[in-house]
Design goal:
This protein is of the alpha+beta class. It is built from 24 helices and 15 strands. The radius of gyration is 25 Å and the shape is globular. The N and C termini lie far apart (71 Å).
Length: 572
């Protein structure tokens, strides 16, 4: 066959090893009846590569064959190639792969049962990630991964790549507390509604709130968050009416591309919230192709209860960060406040699954002084937590937070990998921008050795919540699991530059170097901590690292004593 343009409706089915490709139906199935349905563009590129009979196709060839010659970014082509590779990993036992010849092009390789392409040949990523406030590119080329920084944010990628939006906290210039509350509710509502559209990626509330407090320009916010557009709004009152002004700002130019005003009686804020969220969705429909099937109906909770749960979730993010940094008392105080808000929300709306999800997280982690004081095993806390998750799923079987927590339970405590993966995918089908689902899925894929897939979700976490240190750890960990040690170390170093006292990160590096038997790396890490060991926790870790270094040099007594003491304390 020659390299003719792929008209899917007229392409006959063909085989690649154990895999049957049906272009007209966009289906790929293997001999075990595993079936995947892919996007039209993915199938067009796969067919074009197959029609080339092993010959190389350049990016220009693929543009001509699959994009009708129109201008298409390299990122868009790389994204499709990456999807084809994920398909190859998912069905048919690696019956085929896509090989990259750097600076030349791609070719399809049909693999035999006893031969698999090496990692470097099978997978190339060119996903943009935010690195320390600048855009970074994670690339795999020839010999491995590299992470480097660019000076600014690239222009919009191809239309096939979802648009990224950040909903900033709405503001008010009036001192009335009820207006400040309404402003927070409006931004939360808009974010919640838009995040259920799979054509759009929505930056997490924690990162949006943080960058909004930094007094940056729209372009600077876009660079910091990796956002194509910002949604911003202001709330006020006039003549007995609540008045809002909401705008969509393009970050590349810093200009407003759309704005609208809405008003409602002071006694009826709910109608205002619905109107604003509807305005934003309606205008976005003119920018990206939003299919109604991607916006499943969902139960709206009581507005006051919803606000309380949003506040509780913010407190939980702070609690996680405090826990990472060894500030246990701060973590427990934040957890107690979050618990109180969730319980208040349930007193208003007893069937609010979001409030139950908050309580489940707090219960599982023992994140209040009262829970921490209970003499419970991990298993007992987890069982109490999962009972709350079951209540949430009874209320709303499609609640992404409850689905994710159940999946995390299966992943961490039951080792029911298939069921956990199904739950994470279901959560992301309801809310593609739900960071917790991406984050938990990352660790399952890493545990199962599917590091390349895990990196894809880790990058999603990084893009969706780029200012959250607790979430960002997923990326270096998955880079390490995938064999990209150099890139992982650079990412760890970037994190520690920003948060040098992060005990969680420092302990992770300690265990990593210890298992590598890397005494010199342990010595450098110990020196780094010693230079700013201003807390008992850091001093204890510094001592532990020195014990590990000595153990690697044939003097294990200190490390053995520390380990024995920890085991005894754990058993007690």
């Amino acid at each position: 066959m020659g390299t003719q343009a792929a008209e899917l409706a007229h392409e006959r089915p063909f085989k690649l090893g154990k895999v049957t490709i049906e272009p007209s139906l966009r289906l790929i199935r293997d001999d075990e009846d595993t079936t995947l349905k892919v996007e039209p563009r993915v199938m067009q590129v796969l067919v074009a590569l197959a029609n080339a009979n092993g010959a190389l196709l350049s990016r220009s060839d693929l543009r001509d064959l699959c994009w009708a010659g129109r201008m298409t970014s390299d990122d868009a082509i790389d994204r499709v190639i990456a999807q084809i590779r994920r398909v190859a990993d998912s069905v048919g036992g690696n019956s085929f792969s896509v090989e990259t010849v750097p600076k030349v092009g791609y070719r399809l390789v049909e693999c035999s049962d006893d031969k698999q392409m090496p990692l470097e040949a099978r997978v190339v990523f060119s996903r943009r990630a935010i690195v320390g406030g600048a855009v970074g590119v994670l690339a795999v080329a020839g010999t491995g991964f590299a992470v480097y920084e660019t000076g600014g944010r690239a222009k919009r990628r191809d239309a096939d790549v979802p648009m990224t939006i950040a909903v900033l906290p709405f503001t008010t210039e009036e001192p009335a507390p009820q207006l400040a509350t309404l402003a927070a509710q409006l931004s939360d509502d808009v974010r919640s509604d838009v995040s259920r559209v799979v054509d759009i990626r929505v930056i997490a509330e924690t990162s949006s709130r943080k960058v909004a407090g930094d007094r940056l320009t729209a372009q600077q916010m876009g660079n910091s968050l990796g956002a194509d557009y910002l949604v911003e709004g202001q709330v006020g009152s006039a003549n007995g009416q609540l008045v809002t002004d909401v705008a969509l700002v393009e970050t590349a130019s810093g200009s407003r591309v759309w704005n609208a005003q809405e008003a409602a009686p002071v006694a009826d804020p709910t109608s205002l919230r619905s109107a604003i969220a509807g305005d934003v969705i309606q205008h976005l429909a003119g920018i990206v192709p939003i299919s109604s099937e991607h916006v499943p109906p969902f139960r709206r909770p009581d507005p006051e209860a919803y606000t309380m749960v949003q506040q509780a979730n913010r407190l939980l993010e702070d609690t996680r960060t405090s826990e990472m940094r060894g500030k246990r008392s701060d973590a427990l105080a934040g957890g107690a406040k979050a618990q109180k808000l969730a319980e208040q929300a349930l007193s208003i709306d007893p069937s609010y699954s979001g409030a139950l999800a908050v309580l489940a997280i707090i219960t599982r982690n023992g994140w209040t002084p009262a829970l921490a004081a209970q003499n419970l095993t991990t298993k007992q806390r987890v069982q109490a937590s999962i009972a709350i998750v079951r209540r949430a799923l009874l209320v709303d079987p499609r609640d992404p937070a409850a689905l994710t927590q159940l999946g995390d339970y299966y992943r961490r405590f039951e080792f029911r990998w298939t069921e956990a993966e199904n739950l994470f995918r279901r959560a992301l089908s309801v809310d593609p921008s739900f960071v917790d689902a991406h984050w938990s899925y990352v660790y399952e894929l890493g545990t199962l050795g599917r590091g390349i897939e895990g990196i894809d979700h880790a990058l999603s976490v990084f893009e969706l919540d780029p200012r959250n240190p607790y979430r960002r750890v997923a990326l270096p960990r998955l880079l390490y699991v995938a064999g990209a040690r150099g890139a992982a170390m650079r990412r760890y170093d970037a994190e520690l530059q920003e948060q040098p006292d992060n005990l969680f990160l420092l302990r992770e590096l300690y265990f990593m170097f210890l298992t590598e038997s890397n005494a010199s790396a342990l010595q450098s890490l110990g020196a780094r901590i010693a230079s700013q060991a201003n807390s008992p926790e850091l001093q204890a870790l510094s001592s532990r690292i020195e014990a590990g270094r000595l153990a690697l040099q044939g003097k294990p007594e200190r490390l053995r004593a520390l380990t024995d003491a920890e085991v005894a304390a754990f058993d007690a």
